[in-house]
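Figure S4 source data
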Amino acid sequence: MESSPSGAVNSPSGLRAGTSRSARSASTQAQTHEQPPAQTQAPADAQTQPHALKVFDVEAAFRARNPALARLLPPGTFALLRAVLHEPLVNWGIHRYGAGDALTFCRKVLDHLNIRVELERGDRLRECPRPVVCANHPSGGIEGLVLIAEILQAHGRLSLPANELLGMIPALAPLIVPIDRYRGNRGVARRYADAFAADPPVLVFPAGRTARIRAGRLREYPWAKSFVTAARRHDRVVLPVWVSGRNSALFYGIHRARRALGVSLNVEMLLLVDELLRRRGDVVTVRFGAPRPARDLVESDPVLHRADRRVAFALQREVEQLGRVHANT
């Protein structure tokens, strides 16, 4: 991909006129993929062949993760969850697109949603050796698809520490370093360290969950320091990136209501498939910051974990500043 006169480059999922021949070629290739109809419900074949398509099984996943609670749920609960989470549609999409490679999968989903990406300072990604790409997490789905596609386009390989449920998608499974925040993970520390020790880029969302509205602004949860520690230990280059996006007023309203009622369960997360579909036709801006070796970021401190925590905090502020630059342009 080539830079435009403004310094921005456009992704393969939707390029402006005036891009380079190579960029137009990538766009043409992406647009030749078979386009499914715009819809929010699964087509008939997803309903008539559930045995062949049911990769994403809400009830099975729930029972595996919390069998005690599953036994206490009233009849009809899983039917409601299947509807809210669009289980047939998700399985249809996985069956239709999820058998190929990850780059093709992400492009096809973005094309289906008519998402156009504006990439700024993409040269920093392409030229960065062994990057640890640390990103904000505004909406939960689109930023993951966009960044996976951009990193694979630039480097051809990727490791993504993420919820183990993403490994259900065959195209994404080879990239996923499975992490489950709600259960113990035997061996997860080793898998995480191995990802950083290897050469492929690593994509992390250090907040660990999507941003919420607090004090009238969309704010990230505090970034964990683990990616800084791993990047420093394995001599990686840290590359901050900001991605535009937000969820619906309903999503944030449910969050405020449950917090006011003292409910700890993240009920609003049930809307994430709806939030993904709601982004249809959006323009997503991706702005890369300056890459720096992790060892140069750590301050002089006799206790390294304190330095790593301060670096994570500083990187979070830097990414937020990249977003404020966008808001002021």
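Figure S5 source data
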Amino acid sequence: MHRLREIHKEATPSIKALHWGNITLFCISAILASMMAACGTTLPPVSSENTAAPVTQVTPTETVTPTQSPEPSPSLTPTTMPSLTATLEKITAICSPLQGIELKDLHSITSQAFKAPSPFMDDGHPAVDLAFFTFEGLTSMLGHPVQAILPGKVVMVVDDRFPYGHMILIETPMEMLPDGILPPGVLPTPIPAENIALFDPCAQNPLFENSPPIQMDVQHRSVYSLYSHLKDKPPFEVGDMVTCGQTVGSVGITGNSVAEHLHLEIRIGPSATQFNTFGTYQPDVTTEERYNYCIWSTSGRFQAIDPARLWEDQS
């Protein structure tokens, strides 16, 4: 009996050792399974009732976000306006302002000659008046066709406003005039801008203090030909092109006129000027009409020249 008790005591450590060995093996297996799972593999099942189920590593799927291409920014394309000089005919000569009457004969039907106005004043006679009662078989001047003396663009058409009555204003850029077509000394010396700023009566008139400025290109100069006292409103629109010698109206008695005649007024001034309308000296004239007339006649920006100088060598 004593011997059996000793054998039991000797066997007990062996059983305990076996028990702890199984536990150690299980732990090592679990650790290895975790490590291999991290690498995307699995361990074969361990034959033990306490072995954990195999773990499968799931690789996450990459989410691709579509790249949105930026919309192209709208670009501004500069618009090239057609040049006035590109649309005018080549100028080779001055045309007669009256159909069928040659330049050399105009001096004989001049009823009032040019008289230069004083600076910044609406005086003198900044034009020539052409009139006749009879001329080489013509029995009346009323309704006689009026022609453009230069090609150009229509910049204003006035429907019977005082003092010009029915009239048309045509612009011809200076750069279109060939050398020698204007006689020497006919072009006036431009009035300095500082002088205009000091003496311009339009700027000093309180009536015009709220008047919008008139658009004009002060970097370039043009010849402006004004034909007035016409019988009817000229059948043109602003922007129309006319050729040298083209009929632009007919002689009348409208505006500040007591007998039929053509008032031909020529001034040199800033290019591309937009007057819209003229008028003065009457109670029904608008502030805009007065202001535009002031800029044309007395501001110093538009200088009158003697039209008869253009045909003096034809006499």
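Residues 1-54 form one domain. The two ends are 171 Å apart (CA to CA).
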